[in-house]
Amino acid sequence: MDKKEICSILDQKTDFLNSISDQIWETPELAFTERASAQVLIKALKKEGFEVSSPIAGIETAFSGRFGSGRPVIGFLGEFDALSSLNQRAGISQKAADQPGGCGHGCGHNNLGVGSLAAAIGVKAYLEATGKPGTVVFYGCPGEEGGSGKAFMAREGVFDELDCAFCWHPGTTNAVTSGSSLANYQILYSFTGVSAHAAGAPHLGRSALDAVELMNVGVNFLREHVIQEARMHYAIVNSGGFSPNVVQPTADVLYLLRAPVTSQVQEIYERVNDIAKGAALMTGTSVEIKFIKACSNTVLNATLEKVLFDNMNQIPLPEYTEEDYAFAKAINESVENRAPSFERLIKRAPSEEIIRFLKEREGREINDFVVPLIHSEQAGGGSTDVGDVSWVCPTAQISTATWASATPGHSWQIVAQGKSALAHKSTLYAGKVLAAAAIDLWEHPELIEQAKEEKNRKLDGASYRCPIPKGVIPTPMGKM
Ligand SMILES: [Zn+2]
Question: Rg of the chain's alpha carbons, rounded to an integer?
């Protein structure tokens, strides 16, 4: 069975796959509360003949579906969580929510889960037709947004069985994902003081809100004395009430600390803890430090990136209609503060030729081409829990042009396009490319060995240590 036949099997399942991503779009759920979305995917896996395990890793909404036996074991990572406050009607190019303030699929994870599912279905068909030994596993990975679900799963050894893993993410270009991602820690600092009448008896009060403010001041001074690439963000998630005439007895601040590698985050974390303790001491309050989650930097794998790139070129790109281009144009026109096209890719491009290639294609409504292969070890600004999987087994990712070219990340425009023909077609394309790449690993097992050698070389003897301490359990989004 060749890749063409796999593609036509997946083409026949287009309506089925689209209906799954649409159902997930319609029930947007936040990190670790994705019960309905997980069920939609579990039902689909069962219908397709996968053996489902649910829950796994002690996480209610984590699951897997497997087919086959023996080696190699190739995994596809699927996400399905949504974002808060991004509710938006589908198929329009104006901001309009059906449920103002509600959740929405502002990162395209309704498509992400289904593209990876399609890949698993494609590989299952290949294994059935060829009778080759080996196992394909789809992992339902909850809580990517602010939750590091895969890091919790990796801590429990879920990915230890894998020879290689593939993943994709909706985006504005068809490209192999280049560049590493930052390691991060998320920590909740909860201060407790004593309430009092703010005018009548202020000397009896000890303000937890003062402590939060002093802590933030301390961290803002710390910025000058950490490595350039570090990022420190915070959100005051409890300011101690709404009454200025009451000394606030409680206040909580959530911190997100990032740096290129985990050891650097750990070092900053310890200094931030000292600042929190100092703020408590200054204000006569106490502080509780609760570790929420963490993720590792990504270990890139050029061997698997090349396999993905070759397949992006072998598998026919989606064909877009006049309507697809017109909708993309309307979406692009709705974007204020458009970032320059291909900014990040151009920065990482290794040759003038690639820069020219990209510049010639600037301004297209849909980036309907494959970006030349760019391998860069440079870390971008963000983080992903795919990083933890990449420490366990060779891992690589692609993006596909799921959205109009100017679509910003985590935006209402993404939600508006989540059920569009553009999103559906590019999700299917992602599934075909990932399936085809996995088939290459079955046909050329030496690629798996090369990918493993590369990973071992990069880790230089180090093995994966989950940055999330034992005993820390996933916190559902919004339930800090
Ligand atoms: Zn995402």
Answer: 23
State how far the Cα of 78 lies from the Cα of 34, in Å rounded to an integer: 13
Output the pLDDT for position 236.
96
State which amino acid sits at residue 219: V
Residue 228 CA to ligand 1 centre (angstroms)? 25
> At 345, is the secondary structure helix, strand, or coil?
helix
End-to-end CA distance of the chain: 50
Closest CA to 148 of 81, 55, 64: 81
Q: Is the dihedral of CA 217, 221, 222, 223 positive or negative?
A: positive
CA–centroid distance, residue 122 to ligand 1 (Å): 23
Burial (CB count within 10 angstroms: exposed 0-12, middle 13-18, buried 19+), residue 201: exposed
Question: Which domains are assigned to the chain?
Answer: 3-180+297-459 (3.40.630.10), 183-295 (3.30.70.360)
* Mean pLDDT of the residues in the chain: 96
Q: Which residues surround ligand 1, an ion (CB under 5 A)?
A: 107
How far is 120 from 99, CA to CA, in rounded Å? Answer: 34
**pLDDT over 80 at 480, yes or no:** no
pTM score, whole prediction: 0.95
